[in-house]
Known about the structure:
- By secondary structure, this protein is of the alpha+beta class.
- It has three helices and nine strands, in the order βββαααββββββ.
- It has one domain (10-134): Mannose-Binding Protein A, subunit A (Mannose-Binding Protein A, Chain A), CATH 3.10.100.
- 16% of the residues lie in helices and 24% in strands.
- A hairpin with a 2-residue loop joins β6 (96-103) and β7.
- The model has no long low-confidence stretch (mean pLDDT 94).
Amino acid sequence: MSRFVDNQNGTVTDNETGLTWLKKDSRQFTGKWMDLEKSKKFAEEQNQAQFGGFDDWRVPKLEDVKTVFDRSFRSYDFGNNEIHIPEVFEKGGADCTWTDTVNGDRAMLFSLVKGRSSWINRLGEGPFAVRLVRGTRKPKEQPG
Length: 144
């Protein structure tokens, strides 16, 4: 079985972590960049609409996002620059995603180009987006 499965309903399941992701990010859905607060509202809207049959979409934790980043993955963002997420996600998204990590007026943004996180003004609008997730990450299996 493939690690990442396109559920044919706008979602992608990661069989290794148990997380389910939106196949598109917020910019691909809305055509707009958004800050963290608007990203949280976007999650609420997807929950009200029961997108993919679910009502527990959320802004991802930093550790969640790190599970879909791998330099061996190759896809392309809105500017046709290389990003490192599985090809099953729709091409043309943002090159970063908000996380739920907040410190005062700043929040952690994760780069899908470099695999690093940065503190950004959480009301900054761009070019920022969010890729929503649902579920609880399974603990990584320990070898032998």
